[in-house]
């Protein structure tokens, strides 16, 4: 009698195996292959329970994202009103001759930003991301921007280059993009500052 | 700003990156051009897998209409970001709206396939099935095979075994996928009650020649399933062969050794049965097969008339089960205290969220060994993801709560400063008689016109010249000079000369001076216009500023309760998610404990039987 009980237990434990959907799943622990009606019902119930929770989480995510959008806009409008707002962006095109380490920005002779890039951030720039490195409030009129880029240049030598630009701040937000591109002919990086309205 | 990507839309990039990076790089469609720094900024976060800030920036840029150049791409990117972030229902809404006509069939199919996978993992079987239903012929072969497998699994999970069997039987070829399909076919057949057909399928799989670890595991699994099916069917001899095909050191070896032992025991060859069972003695007691072997060994010993040895083994088993039960109880207590999930959050910093994340290792601690295999279940993993995401949301809301508090103070300070400055400004404005200045300027204009018309060159003389003119005319009228003497005549001539020279100079400079004064007057007029414009702006600001403050105040004060309310809801959702995960973990441990309880009862029962037998024999001997 004991033998039957043991075997019964063994079989219910081991008889075995859930479905497999990929190679990675070929070594799971003991799911039940011969799933009984009761365990199937329990699975369905558990799925329904999870789904209900998941639906709540999804709803919350949506609401928190919307709230974040509203807060982000409020923060920007409050700290950088459109009339005085100037945003400075960094971007990279190709980047074969320059490996970016940091960017230093001076507006009208005053240092306003000194940003050190992580490898992950540089990767994102190389893939086409654009980084908003600084936001400022400036009066209408003429201003001067000096950007100093440091990093590794051709042949992985330390490299430091500046780019200067005078720009006029009118009424309304202004965006300036500091773009690092490759000048293939000279095998040198090129630093260009562009204005966006 | 030309910037080339190896994607046609950001969604494709997302799918290419997640599913097939190499292929995406090589066969990627025509690149696109980023025409807006705000769009690029979203990509900057997206490429760092920071989906939450990427979504927020995209939503904000869209609200500010800063993505006019990328409207359609932006919406697809949003769908992709939602998907990456695990916000699958919102993602699906976007894709349902956009994917029908706007993108290539391959992108569309990849998207639906990916959604189907997420929904299957999250238990949305109906939606997963719908998503698979949208697939056309655009999916690459490897994904098409995976999609078919997914379909079969969904059918099995939802109890539609007939449909699953029909689908799996269509699988042709000798690929890895075909082996998995065969295994799942066996599962479906067993679950539908067709064990005989399943046996032949599993036997075929159990004899395959594996060329990698996955297939070797699959073969072990099939052999184990087959062996126990035969054992249950009373075919102990036949069961031995597949069970002996299972690797001795693989993840299924314990169960296989136990089964081999039972196959021998079934045929009453207890001495042989002891060989694999004894091998199990030194293995991890957590494994149910090892636990069962602790009862099987004394059972065989008793059958071999080694009663005293059997009794010792039963006592050992009872002791071991007791200790293991205590450990499980402690672990249940630990989990119920909530520390496990706090440890889990502490071990997993919230710098990245998203659907791809999986917990690979339980937090260190005694409970880890009991819960390790929970990590292989979708339910636990997806539950953990939600718990982690909720924790991220909570921290995000907390950060905002502090920021909004700062903004409220900032706003109040600005309002106070404005209120204090306003009277001073109003006073200064009242003192500045702008209208008077304009009138004076107009008077000057009129005066200058008269001077020009009358050619009044003396009117534009400098002070010095005017004094000089006065002196000359004064001298001219001196009575002494009227005398008719040569000296007086000489002086009169000199005075006349001086007067003539001065007049000549004044007439010569007249036009130049007129032009200069007109220029100055024009500049003054312009300055006055600017001042009037500034004044209007100041007036407008004074009218608008209070409204602006009110607008900001309403937003800040309106957002504060929204954050607070949302935080409460996140806390509730975290508690629910926590309870759900806890119930899975504790349920798992309770099942282990229940099994140990049953084994303990069996061991006690067998031990009592042995004592009874011994007592009866003693009485009989007396």
Helix-strand makeup class of chain A: alpha+beta
End-to-end C-alpha gap of chain A = 87 Å
Q: What's the structural domain tally of chain A?
A: 2
The quaternary structure here is heterodimer
**Strand fraction band of chain B?**
under 5%
What kind of sheet is the major sheet of chain B? none
Rg of chain B is 47 Å
Mean pLDDT of chain A: 80
User: What is the name of the CATH class of the largest domain in chain A?
Assistant: Mainly Beta
Low-pLDDT regions of chain A = 1-17, 22-35
Strand order of the largest sheet of chain A: 4-1-7-8
Number of helices of chain B: 24
**Gyration radius over CA of chain A:** 29 Å
Proportion of residues in β-strands of chain A? 35-45%
**Would you report the number of β strands of chain A?**
8
Give the name of the CATH architecture of the largest domain in chain A. Answer: Sandwich
On the 0 to 100 scale, the average pLDDT of chain B is 85
User: Which word captures the global form of chain A?
Assistant: flat
Given as residue ranges, the uncertain stretches of chain B (5+ residues, pLDDT < 50) are 1-11, 13-32
């Amino acid at each position: 009698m004991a033998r039957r009980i043991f075997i019964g237990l063994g079989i219910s434990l081991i008889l075995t195996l859930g479905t497999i959907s990929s190679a990675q799943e070929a070594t799971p622990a003991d799911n039940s292959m011969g799933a009984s009606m009761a365990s199937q019902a329990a699975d369905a119930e558990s799925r329904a329970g999870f789904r209900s929770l998941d639906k709540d989480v999804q709803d919350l995510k949506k609401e928190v994202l919307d709230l974040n959008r509203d807060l982000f806009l409020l923060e920007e409008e409050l700290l950088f009103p459109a009339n005085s707002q100037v945003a400075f962006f960094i971007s990279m095109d190709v980047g074969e001759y320059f490996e970016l380490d940091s960017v230093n920005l001076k507006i009208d002779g005053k240092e306003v930003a000194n940003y050190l890039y992580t490898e992950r951030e540089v990767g994102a720039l190389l893939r086409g991301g654009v980084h908003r490195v600084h936001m400022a409030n400036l009066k209408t009129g003429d201003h001067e921007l000096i950007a100093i880029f440091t990093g590794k240049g051709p042949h992985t030598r330390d490299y430091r280059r500046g780019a200067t630009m005078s720009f006029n701040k009118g009424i309304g937000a202004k965006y300036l993009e500091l773009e690092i591109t490759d000048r293939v002919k000279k095998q040198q990086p090129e630093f260009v500052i562009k204005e966006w309205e | 700003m030309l910037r080339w990507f190896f994607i046609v839309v950001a969604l494709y990039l997302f799918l290419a990156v997640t599913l097939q990076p190499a292929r995406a790089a090589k066969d990627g469609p025509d690149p696109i051009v980023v025409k807006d720094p705000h769009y690029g900024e979203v990509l900057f976060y997206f490429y760092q897998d920071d989906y939450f800030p990427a979504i927020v920036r995209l939503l904000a840029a869209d609200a500010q209409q800063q993505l006019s150049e990328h409207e359609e791409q932006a919406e697809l990117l949003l769908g992709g970001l939602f998907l990456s972030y695990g916000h699958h229902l919102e993602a699906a809404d976007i894709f349902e709206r956009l994917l029908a006509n706007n993108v290539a069939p391959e992108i569309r199919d990849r998207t639906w396939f990916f959604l189907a996978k997420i929904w299957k993992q999250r238990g949305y079987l109906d939606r997963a099935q719908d998503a698979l239903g949208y697939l056309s012929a655009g999916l690459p072969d490897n994904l098409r095979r995976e999609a078919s497998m997914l379909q079969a699994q969904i059918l099995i999970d939802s109890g539609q075994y007939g449909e699953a069997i029909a689908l799996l039987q269509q699988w042709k070829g000798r690929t890895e996928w075909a082996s998995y399909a065969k295994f799942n076919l066996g599962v479906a057949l067993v679950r539908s009650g067709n064990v005989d057909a399943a046996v032949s399928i599993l036997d075929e799989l159990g004899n395959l020649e594996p060329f990698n670890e996955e297939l070797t595991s699959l073969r072990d699994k099939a052999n184990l399933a087959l062996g126990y099916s035969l054992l249950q069917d009373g075919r102990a001899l036949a069961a031995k062969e597949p069970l002996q095909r299972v690797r001795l050191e693989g993840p299924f070896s314990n169960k296989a050794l136990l089964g081999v032992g039972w196959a021998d025991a079934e045929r009453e060859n207890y001495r042989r049965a002891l060989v694999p069972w004894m091998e199990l003695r030194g293995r991890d007691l957590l494994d149910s097969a090892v636990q069962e072997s602790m009862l099987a060994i004394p059972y065989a010993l008793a059958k071999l008339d080694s009663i005293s040895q059997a009794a010792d083994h039963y006592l050992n088993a009872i002791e071991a089960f007791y200790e293991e039960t205590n450990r499980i109880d402690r672990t249940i207590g630990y989990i119920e205290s909530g520390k496990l999930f706090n440890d889990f959050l502490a071990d997993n910093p919230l710098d990245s969220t998203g659907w791809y994340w999986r917990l690979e290792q339980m937090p260190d601690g005694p409970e880890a060994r009991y819960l390790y295999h929970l990590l292989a279940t979708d339910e636990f993993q997806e539950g953990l993801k939600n718990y982690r995401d909720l924790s991220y949301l909570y921290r995000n809301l907390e950060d905002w709560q502090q920021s909004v508090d700062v903004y409220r103070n900032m706003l109040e300070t600005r309002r106070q400063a404005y209120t204090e400055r306003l009277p001073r400004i109003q006073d200064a404005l009242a003192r500045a008689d702008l209208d008077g200045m304009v009138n004076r300027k107009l008077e000057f204009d009129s005066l200058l016109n008269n001077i020009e018309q009358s050619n009044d060159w003396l009117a534009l003389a400098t002070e010095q010249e005017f004094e000089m003119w006065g002196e000359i005319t004064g001298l001219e009228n001196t009575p002494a000079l009227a005398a008719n003497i040569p000296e007086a005549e000489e002086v009169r001539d000199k005075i006349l000369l001086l007067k003539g020279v001065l007049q000549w100079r004044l007439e010569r400079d007249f036009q130049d001076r007129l032009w200069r004064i007109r220029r100055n007057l024009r500049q003054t007029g312009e300055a006055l216009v600017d001042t009037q414009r500034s004044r209007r702006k100041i007036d407008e600001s004074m009218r608008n500023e209070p409204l602006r403050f009110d607008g900001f105040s309403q937003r800040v004060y309106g957002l504060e309760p929204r954050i607070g309310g949302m935080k409460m809801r996140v806390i509730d959702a975290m508690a629910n998610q926590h309870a759900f995960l806890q119930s899975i973990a504790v349920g798992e441990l309770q099942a282990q404990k229940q099994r140990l309880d049953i084994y303990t009862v069996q061991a006690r029962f067998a031990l009592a039987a042995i004592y009874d037998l011994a007592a009866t024999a003693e009485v009989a001997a007396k």
